Protein backbone atom coordinates (compact mmCIF):
# COMPACT_ATOMS: atom_id res chain seq x y z
CA UNK A 1 0.00 0.00 0.00
CA UNK A 2 1.69 3.17 -1.21
CA UNK A 3 1.11 6.67 0.15
CA UNK A 4 -0.71 7.54 -3.08
CA UNK A 5 -3.03 4.52 -2.81
CA UNK A 6 -3.86 5.38 0.81
CA UNK A 7 -4.70 8.93 -0.29
CA UNK A 8 -6.94 7.58 -3.08
CA UNK A 9 -8.78 5.39 -0.54
CA UNK A 10 -9.36 8.43 1.70
CA UNK A 11 -10.69 10.49 -1.22
CA UNK A 12 -12.92 7.64 -2.42
CA UNK A 13 -14.54 6.86 0.95
CA UNK A 14 -15.84 10.46 1.18
CA UNK A 15 -18.77 9.20 -0.87
CA UNK A 16 -19.92 7.15 2.13
CA UNK A 17 -19.76 10.06 4.59
CA UNK A 18 -23.13 10.89 6.19
CA UNK A 19 -23.17 14.68 6.05
CA UNK A 20 -26.75 15.99 5.60
CA UNK A 21 -26.05 19.05 7.78
CA UNK A 22 -22.61 20.35 6.90
CA UNK A 23 -22.43 18.76 3.42
CA UNK A 24 -18.71 18.65 4.19
CA UNK A 25 -17.56 15.12 3.37
CA UNK A 26 -14.29 13.92 4.86
CA UNK A 27 -12.63 10.57 4.26
CA UNK A 28 -9.85 8.77 6.09
CA UNK A 29 -7.80 5.66 5.38
CA UNK A 30 -5.65 3.91 7.96
CA UNK A 31 -2.94 1.37 7.15
CA UNK A 32 -2.24 -1.24 9.84
CA UNK A 33 1.06 -3.00 10.49
CA UNK A 34 -0.68 -6.21 9.42
CA UNK A 35 -1.22 -4.66 5.98
CA UNK A 36 -4.96 -4.00 6.20
CA UNK A 37 -6.57 -0.69 5.29
CA UNK A 38 -9.53 0.65 7.25
CA UNK A 39 -11.55 3.52 5.81
CA UNK A 40 -14.29 5.80 7.08
CA UNK A 41 -16.21 8.98 6.45
CA UNK A 42 -17.61 11.48 8.92
CA UNK A 43 -21.02 10.63 10.39
CA UNK A 44 -23.25 13.50 11.47
CA UNK A 45 -26.35 13.67 13.64
CA UNK A 46 -29.30 16.04 14.06
CA UNK A 47 -27.90 16.57 17.55
CA UNK A 48 -24.77 18.22 16.20
CA UNK A 49 -22.55 17.58 19.20
CA UNK A 50 -22.50 13.83 18.59
CA UNK A 51 -21.15 14.11 15.03
CA UNK A 52 -18.07 11.94 14.58
CA UNK A 53 -15.19 12.92 12.31
CA UNK A 54 -13.87 10.60 9.62
CA UNK A 55 -10.58 10.15 11.45
CA UNK A 56 -12.21 8.87 14.63
CA UNK A 57 -14.71 6.68 12.76
CA UNK A 58 -11.76 5.04 11.01
CA UNK A 59 -9.56 4.61 14.08
CA UNK A 60 -12.48 3.16 16.06
CA UNK A 61 -13.34 0.77 13.22
CA UNK A 62 -9.78 -0.58 13.24
CA UNK A 63 -9.55 -0.82 17.04
CA UNK A 64 -12.89 -2.60 17.28
CA UNK A 65 -11.63 -5.16 14.76
CA UNK A 66 -8.61 -5.90 16.95
CA UNK A 67 -6.04 -3.76 15.10
CA UNK A 68 -3.98 -1.40 17.23
CA UNK A 69 -0.68 -1.03 15.39
CA UNK A 70 -0.64 1.47 12.60
CA UNK A 71 1.72 2.58 9.82
CA UNK A 72 0.07 5.66 8.28
CA UNK A 73 -3.19 7.55 7.88
CA UNK A 74 -4.53 9.69 5.05
CA UNK A 75 -7.31 12.26 5.49
CA UNK A 76 -9.08 13.98 2.59
CA UNK A 77 -11.68 16.71 2.10
CA UNK A 78 -12.66 19.21 -0.60
CA UNK A 79 -10.67 22.05 0.94
CA UNK A 80 -8.37 24.72 -0.50
CA UNK A 81 -5.44 23.43 1.53
CA UNK A 82 -4.85 19.87 2.81
CA UNK A 83 -7.54 19.33 5.47
CA UNK A 84 -6.33 19.86 9.05
CA UNK A 85 -7.81 17.39 11.57
CA UNK A 86 -9.73 18.88 14.51
CA UNK A 87 -8.26 18.94 17.99
CA UNK A 88 -10.40 16.06 19.26
CA UNK A 89 -9.15 13.80 16.48
CA UNK A 90 -5.54 14.82 17.11
CA UNK A 91 -5.95 13.76 20.74
CA UNK A 92 -7.45 10.40 19.73
CA UNK A 93 -4.68 9.90 17.14
CA UNK A 94 -2.04 10.61 19.79
CA UNK A 95 -3.47 7.85 22.00
CA UNK A 96 -2.96 5.19 19.33
CA UNK A 97 -0.31 6.45 16.88
CA UNK A 98 3.45 6.44 17.49
CA UNK A 99 5.00 9.90 17.70
CA UNK A 100 6.89 9.22 14.45
CA UNK A 101 3.88 7.93 12.51
CA UNK A 102 3.03 9.82 9.33
CA UNK A 103 -0.36 11.37 8.66
CA UNK A 104 -0.99 12.50 5.09
CA UNK A 105 -3.41 15.43 4.92
CA UNK A 106 -4.80 16.09 1.47
CA UNK A 107 -7.59 17.52 -0.65
CA UNK A 108 -9.40 16.22 -3.72
CA UNK A 109 -6.67 17.71 -5.93
CA UNK A 110 -4.27 15.47 -4.00
CA UNK A 111 -2.34 18.47 -2.69
CA UNK A 112 -0.77 16.78 0.29
CA UNK A 113 1.09 17.76 3.44
CA UNK A 114 2.58 15.02 5.57
CA UNK A 115 3.03 15.45 9.32
CA UNK A 116 4.42 13.19 11.99
CA UNK A 117 2.10 12.59 14.94
CA UNK A 118 4.42 14.60 17.19
CA UNK A 119 4.09 17.58 14.81
CA UNK A 120 0.28 17.41 14.64
CA UNK A 121 -0.05 17.46 18.42
CA UNK A 122 3.13 18.51 20.20
CA UNK A 123 3.41 18.42 23.99
CA UNK A 124 0.29 16.26 24.12
CA UNK A 125 -1.34 14.93 27.25
CA UNK A 126 -0.99 11.15 27.32
CA UNK A 127 -0.82 7.90 29.24
CA UNK A 128 2.54 8.76 30.78
CA UNK A 129 1.12 11.94 32.34
CA UNK A 130 -1.83 10.07 33.79
CA UNK A 131 -0.08 6.92 34.98
CA UNK A 132 3.58 7.98 35.17
CA UNK A 133 6.29 6.58 32.89
O1 LIG B 1 -10.70 16.86 9.89
C1 LIG B 1 -11.94 16.89 9.92
C2 LIG B 1 -12.65 18.09 10.04
C3 LIG B 1 -14.04 18.03 10.07
N1 LIG B 1 -14.68 16.83 9.98
C4 LIG B 1 -16.14 16.76 9.94
C5 LIG B 1 -16.88 17.05 11.21
C6 LIG B 1 -18.23 17.50 10.66
O2 LIG B 1 -19.00 16.36 10.30
C7 LIG B 1 -17.87 18.23 9.37
C8 LIG B 1 -17.80 19.75 9.51
O3 LIG B 1 -16.98 20.13 10.57
O4 LIG B 1 -16.59 17.72 9.00
C9 LIG B 1 -13.98 15.64 9.84
O5 LIG B 1 -14.56 14.57 9.71
N2 LIG B 1 -12.62 15.72 9.85
ZN1 LIG C 1 -12.06 15.57 14.13
Secondary structure blueprint with pairings:
Blueprint: H1 3-13, E1 26-32, E2 37-41, H2 54-64, E3 70-77, H3 87-96, E4 102-107, E5 113-116, H4 117-120, H5 127-131
Parallel strand pairs: 3-4
Antiparallel strand pairs: 1-2, 1-3, 4-5
Bound molecules: 2'-deoxyuridine and zinc ion.
Description:
This protein is an alpha+beta fold. Helix content is 31%, strand content 23%. It is built from five helices and five strands, in the order αββαβαββαα. The protein has helices spanning 3-13, 54-64, 87-96, 117-120, 127-131; strands spanning 26-32, 37-41, 70-77, 102-107, 113-116. A five-stranded mixed sheet has the order 2-1-3-4-5. The protein is globular, with a radius of gyration of 14 Å.
What structural class should be given to the helix and strand makeup? alpha+beta
Low-confidence stretches: none
What coarse outline follows from CA principal-axis ratios?
globular
The CATH architecture can be named as 3-Layer(aba) Sandwich
Q: What is the arithmetic mean of pLDDT?
A: 98
**Distinct ligands, ions and cofactors found in the model:** 2'-deoxyuridine, zinc ion
Q: For the terminal residues, how far apart are their CA atoms?
A: 34 Å
CATH level-4 homologous superfamily:
Cytidine Deaminase, domain 2
Number of helices: 5
Strand-residue proportion: 15-25%
Amino acid sequence: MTKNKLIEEAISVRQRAYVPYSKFAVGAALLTKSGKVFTGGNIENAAYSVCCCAERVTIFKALSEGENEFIAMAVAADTERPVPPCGACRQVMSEFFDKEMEIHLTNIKKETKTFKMKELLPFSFGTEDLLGS
